[in-house]
Batch of 4 targets.
Target 1
Amino acid sequence: MLRYFNNFIKKIKNLTIKNYSTNEDPLFIPEENYTSSVLSNKLDSNVTLIKTYLGHSVDLKVRSFLIPTVPSIGASVVFLDTMVEDQLLESSVIAPLTTGLSLHSEDERASLSIHIDSLIEKALSNSLVNSYENVTDVIDQILLGQGILLIDNYSKGISIKINRGPLRDFAEPKTEKVIKGPQQGFVEDIDVNVSMIRKKIKSSNLVVNQCKIGKESRSELRVIYLNNIADSSIVEELFQRLDRINIDGLINSSSIEECLTDSPSNLFQTTFCTERPDRTASLLLEGRIALLFDGSPIVIIVPSIISDFFISTEDYYQNPYFATFSRFIGYIGAFMLTFFPSIYIAITTFHQEVLPTRLALTIAGARSGVPFPAFLEALLMEIAFESLRQAGTRLPTHVGQAVSIVGALIIGQAAVEAGLVSSAVVIVVAITAIFSFTIPYTNFSLSLRLTRFFMMALAATLGIYGIMTGAFMLALNLISLRSFGVPFMVPFAPLSLQDLKDWFVRFPQWSITKRSSHIVKGNNSRKSRNMKPNPPN
């Protein structure tokens, strides 16, 4: 027994004690996939070399043309079309190098074909023009949204500022609002959404693939992941499921969710949705895969786990202690939403002896004139509140808030005064409703709201034993769920002490050095050693 206890203590220490004796610069992350090679003077070779790093993404474009010197010279502009302004590309690069040079005399064009530096200086008026010889610098400039001009018989890449301006056509997130943090959300334009993600993750390992869904609609779908982090087997499984979708058309991202989920008939959803670029980027860095649907501001994330629905984006903009407290409130809210009405029904119907005498007398006095049993009383109030919530959702914002609040007050007060329900059940329903709003994401909350009625029926039939039976069935259901082979209940079942540091409580970022081994099979290290801040002497 002592040996097991010592092993447990060692595991706890490994969660918090790290080796910070190395002299690594914590801000330096080596680009292991880049080589130290330089560009050659062959245009085709340079284009091929860039494609070896970025060619796996469909938004990498190569615009080839001839510069009308004497003799003419081949040239290409390499860029990411989701980050580049097409009109700026045409006016700042293509037109000056083609139409503009054709106006010069033949002798001048013959001289410019020999002196490429003079050609660039004369033709390109863009003030932010720089030349690079190293492939690493060229790739970095492309990922920043710049265009790279490659010219035949010239061993440098010319970086030209043709990227989009500040994105002001984004939407403010409706369901994931934060007080401290960026107020930026996805929009219906899929290219703008891809650009938002690329601005968050400037890596050559970011893969953007394109799919067409629907025989008639031909809806565009982008699949985004980091190929050095995401599990290749999950990526392969995702594309196999997408290939199996054989339907006339899909008009929204929710339809794709139903086709991709592991358990389509289960009440709980095993895919996660978000409308925030920062949340999407953080999940991509954990090894997840993002699916962007053209015409929808909602991004689907797979695989997903239960903790995703309790982690708010604002947790990472707040103090770790307050973020942990907020998560605990969310978990308590999930428990109260599921079990609180059924506990009330079980106690008032079968187990009055568990209550203190004064509380039992108070509840009995409040229910003395009610003609309905506790189950029917609670069921009617829950249905009434759900109806008011639905009415508030369907109506315009200001009118909907007034209907939901005023309607609940008036109906509850009138029902109590008429003797149809007791004041105790109104309090129970109100507390349950308040706790339902503590869960950050409504998809999981909706499933628990339906589960609550099943628990109420069991409590009315078997009392506390019915609640225990329902809780056992609910736990078995959640433990059996998988999301692309990943256990849905990670990090609780199977238990992972390492994953609890970020998915249950909120540890400081410098202490989280590993990705989840349940999601990422290879590159588990976050390379965040030596990031613990040292106080000044």
Target 2
Amino acid sequence: MERVLAFRKYLILGFILLIASIFLARFFYVQIMVDKYILSANNNVLRYMTQYPARGLVFDRYGELMVYNEAAYDLMVIPKQVKKPDTAALCSLLGIDAEEFRSRLQKARAFSPYRPSIFEAQITRENFGFLEEKLFLFPGFYVQPRTLRKYSFPVAAHAFGYIGEASPEVIARNPYYRPGDYIGISGIEKSYEEVLRGQKGMKIRVFDVLNRDKGSFRDGKYDTTAVAGIDLYATMDVQLQQYGELLMTNKKGSIVAIEPSTGEILCLVTSPSYDPNLLSGNIRKKNYAALLADSVYVPLFNRALMAMYPPGSTFKLVDALVGQQEGVLTPETRYGCQLGFAIGNGKKVACHPHPSPLDLIGAIQTSCNAYFCRVFKSIIDNHAYPGTRKAYENWRKEVMSFGFGKKLGIDMPGELNGNIPSPAYYDKYHGVNRWRSMTIISLAIGQGELGITPLQLANFSATIANRGWFRTPHLIRAIGKKDSLIGEFTTRHQVAVDPRYFEVVVEGMANVVTAGTATGAKLDSVEICGKTGTAQNPHGKNHSIFIAFAPRNNPKIAISVVCENAGFGATWAAPIASLMIEKYLKRTVKRKDVEERMIGGNLINGKYDDDQRKQRDLSQD
């Protein structure tokens, strides 16, 4: 009997010890190993506050700060904690009515009664001061620090781009983003989002029932620190950008300038434009809607990357190079011109008066249409190829090696290919084996189906400046450190034309400015090489186009200027380009009369006189 009692005693004692051990183990696990259970148990007084990092800054090529951050605040709401708020007082502080208040609160409840969501986004630092004093009166509401993007200069809106709230689609495919997070929507803000955004952190704060902050939970043991975004060093010269936008006041078009040796974009002007500060903060949605609705000026349209124009006579330089490469043209080749080139049935491609016959340099200088029609015809009718189609395919391949008809790969979203028509297009339009060089002769003078972007024109100018190669145009030269060049932009792209054929074209371009169709672009002490273009426009007045680079040797800048509906290339585009070159190379402009005339010209509303700027007898291009 005693043995049975002893066994029972030890059994009971063992059971008690087992239960005690289980409780102790569970207590240790909850208290020490997984403290997160404590956080869940106290969730009614704990607030998880995302720490948003400051986005990286953006500097211009000389270290001028262009894009920075300014303190802002999001008013957050946890619907379940909202207890009979003084609606009128809060509405007054936020500048909304009671109906809007109820709508926002209902939207927050639909998202989650227990999780915070944004009630009022990006409150400025000034307005936050008034709200902060009264916030304790509104249980369930608290403020989340953020930053606003600000711009030191009201320029380069299309290059910078803007940020906005991440869409549900972005959130679904990228776990980094949560509702209420912001992301780059366009421009370099989008291209370099992962570099600029940094890394979010988290702080857990304790709040009492009166919505008062009682400090960090567990002295910040569970907090994580936000990591700021990385700074970008842009290729842009902000002073040149400002000047370009000033010259394009009341004009539609673009200016793109590139440093030929590096591919660095010195300015990217698209006009009309807007102040980038308009799309920053809680005014963004309202301003974006207004800009989007502007069908006259279309300020959101990035003409530099997305507008496609017939290049006009600037394209003659392509055939001057390809013709030499194909062996059907030499610098001494001479053709006559009887005010045009006959294409049959009494029709002809017209030309303006000039000396005749001309060699290649003279034809570039005077921009003779007849000369380059004959050059193009000799390329397409070249007997070295078994028929028109093969010759055209080869011509197209060589043309596209200059970066036409495809994206150049700039570090910005939205770039378009442009268009160099394929043989299949002509087969479809004219019929297989039913088109010849004369059928597509308009390509010879940069017309017809050609579509070239201003960026491609500037890159073409840089390619000639380099005598046959280019680097991918880009807006950001370094990430994090000013001298840490981005490797992918250091590769040289060689075109399909031998470098020895470029010098005669350069000579012709120099003569264009000294004695040809663009004497208005001449600049003392700097030899500018350029080419005018007048692009026919079926929808209205012709487009004025000019490409150039300077100086002739060891060039520092290559440029394209497009002024829509502005007439001859010599009238507006050429003087604007020469002013930009003067500004960049000299840092100041002495030709104030030309500057005032270009700034004052209103080409959008047609308040100018074409005859005012015509060159004596060579401005017909």
Target 3
Amino acid sequence: MMDARTVNPLDDPNSEAAITYAKERHDNIRTFVRTNPDYYIRNFDKIGASARFTPTFNIMAGLFGPIWFGARGLWSWALPFLIIEALALVQIARGLFGDLGADAMARIASIEGTLELRRQQLAAAIESGSDRVEAFRRAVEGLEQNIGGIREEAAALAAQGPQIVLLGVCLLVLVKAAQATVANWALEARFSDWVSDRSIRSGMPVSHIVFSAIFMILIVTAAMLHYSLPGRFDLLGNFPTDPDIRLTSIEGVENFFNWAVLNGDALFDGITFVIRLVLDALEIVFVSTPWIVIAALIILLTWLTAGVRMAIYSGAFLSYMGLLGFWEKAMTTLALLGTAACLSILIGIPLGMFAARRPRFYAAIQPIMDFMQTMPAFVFMIPVIAFFGTGKPAAVVTTMIFGGTPVVRLTVLGLRGVPDSVREAAISFGANKWYLLTRVDLPLASPSIRAGINQTIMLSLAMVVVASLIGAKGLGEDVLEALQYANVGQGILAGFAILFCAMILDRIVQGQRK
């Protein structure tokens, strides 16, 4: 009875299909490498015959190293090999030409100045018969011993030249051997990518060879000169600049902000009014309302969104804040946080909805959001204080800048992740744009949008302590006082209160019951 298994015709090297495939592969290799094709055909066939790493030896890659890899477009290999080769060559140059004891001799020169002063003081003390003669003599002897020890250290360092050269040579030989061994394997992987994507560069164009050679030589030469002859070339150690450039830039920035403050009073007053309106309303809700009402509402809301167990935990967390005297400050923190989070969400979700279907607009605002998230908070607090002064409105603006971007990004991500097939099906059944947005896009994107809201709230809470620096009240003020006066207990207890606020809000927003 015949075996019913399927037989791959390529498994038989004498079959017509296998011969045709091998011929096509060899033609592709010739087109890809362009130089010495027979050598690469032989080695690529050897490498392709096994799924494991197959070592071969490429003498040109070993000799020219990173230049060869860069000319072939293998920059992910060229740069690590360049760093290792530069390190090896620097060691060789230091051992052959470097002044290994230069730092020690510089220390001796600085000590000799002090030693000469102490000798003069000793001579004056002996002449005057002072009772400090012995003290000065001990100081002189100690400095002389230090100089002697440093001279021995300098001599020992100078004697290490041959060892450093040998270490550099060994490292260079090893990296050359590694480059020669992996070169064909790395190039064969690039060839496999080129077969499926012909936009990948092939061959070794002269322009790329020249660029790779100049780049590598410049990097290695600069490193060798800097480390082998320290301080000899000022250009390598210090960036060429003029102090007037910095002063002029500072003056220009200050003039811009002065102009903005003088001409933007109406805008900043309007923003402050809106922030005050929301903040005062939330402070009335959280701070002025009896604690038992707020606690009951928070526990009920947690139970409805996250279940009974989390409601019990929320009750315990709220009890912790109340028993330790953090209740009013915790509610002030929630009001401040709520203002920043609400405004961020009210601005961020519509902005994300607008940007989700407009790639150019989103590409334009992405650098702005990157700036808002990566710029240290203490930096953008400076213009905020200039525009809004100190106090709670400035703290809200600072918190919005730091925590407002995740809701935009995740709204865009969620809406772009809605399957096109679902949208097309809704459109085919007559859905208009409003129905498509409210009944299809937003429900399917809601997990991502909810995650963005959660991240905005968490990042806003992370700014509680920083915001206290510019006049925001609440739990951050206690942490700041603990830092100023090294009050460990107060800082830890207030920190736990902030943590519990974050956990309650996180469970409410990301509850199990959707």
Target 4
Amino acid sequence: MNPPGTSRLPGGVPTAHTDTFARDNLPPRELWPVMDYSGIPELAYPDHLNCAVELLDAGVARGWGERVAFRSPTESVTYQQLLERANRIARVLVEDFGLVPGNRVLLRGANSPMMVALWCAVLKAGGVVVCTMPLLRARELTFTLDKAQIDLAITDVRLTAELDQAMEGRAKGAVLRYGDSTPGSLDVRMAGKAATFGNVRTAADDVALIAFTSGTTGEGKGTMHFHRDVMAICDCFPRHVLRASPDDVFIGSPPFAFTFGLGGLALFPMRIGASSILLEQATPPFLIQAIQDYGATVVFTAPTAYRAMLALLPNFSVKSLRKCVSAGEALPRATFDAWKAATGITLIDGIGATELLHIFISAADDEVRPGSTGKPVPGYQARVVDDAMKEVPDGEIGRLAVRGPTGCRYLLNQERQEAYVRDGWNLTGDSYKRDADGYFWYQARTDDMIISSGYNISGPEVEGVLLEHPLVLECGVVGVPDEERGQLVKAFVVLKPDAERSPATVKVLQDFVKQQLAPYKYPRAVEFRDALPRTSTGKLQRYRLREP
């Protein structure tokens, strides 16, 4: 084991990070939420903890080496094989690229056993993982590279083009490709490395990952989470609500860049020695086919996918399923009832946030109350408050406030930190009400985030791209209700005088956005207006655009 660094964390524990960028750019301690580790005994972690070592190396030491850890349409990998692969990658990172503890490493690829090995390898070497969506474009990747000050990016060879464009003109930085046998590729480098590695002895409170989430201002926000936090989400919701077993087969649709997917499809099964099916394409037709083919028992996906799979059920068998988790957007009662009627399975609803890493309110089995998100997950506390942070009476609508073993720590964004965390509580941006029995009922988002098919989409970000088009004078982008997607991205556009209001112009604008942003962000509806509603000071009144 490598010795820890000489510098120390606020609690006095030595840190392993010799590159102190992440720690140095945490918000001031007084702006952190209350981090409560007393809720359940499982949260009493040692001062030194490496979450990848605990999830992978310790699992093999427990005798899980020959169990299948991850399967995909192209391979099946045991825990022992995953460990050896991660060790070889870690050696490449340290020996060939000079990775030192605390360096940030960007990962770009679809869900796969290789992505899990990469994730573990970076952490075993003491690095900080920054996962990105495979659909992101160069301008989005550039923001992440700059914000997290990344010098090494690892990408699936099929996704190289946008990353190469984002890396152009940078003073330093390397791109390491996997998935081919060309000289210098990760695959070739791994072949010459030993399958053992001396894991870095990170502190429990060293930063393990930076997860980016879209903001209402259009600027992505990096949320920093410790090794302790990663283990906490494994020991709260899955242990006390999901209650899966080592014999379960996990499957789902969210990419690892969404912490909903990282937890549900990688971390949670690894914590108990179960297996997981990882799909590059996990749209409802592919997902339901894979549930049938692999005999999946636990599925993580968004309400939109459950609605879409309902129409496909007559052609597939999902009799293997026993646990179905819904998150990413509000679960409509109609979807809950229809899935129950068709499959006999009670959907496990849940709300989480990238800022808190995973689900913190939920309920399962006999504790489910249809239409309600549930109760605080053991380890967490939740309340409904007014603008002054005073609890409102049960039955009244207010702002959801949460605290527990995980919480918001933004990278280089003190203004947003001060807005998200107040009086030690995380304000999630959701309106809720609580009933007399302690169940929480979702009402609406309190900000300008659009949640469509489980994706968080910033309206102002889409506006910023549309305004770059030469035909656009003004625009406003909001979410409007949609039966299939929950919300639909809709753009209200004021064209320049010589532009034509036509379906052809709509398509031109939609294609323009698709070229600049991830395709799921483009406006599926475009309405032309003579003017947009604004305040006397010129501020766009988005709430008026949402009115029927």
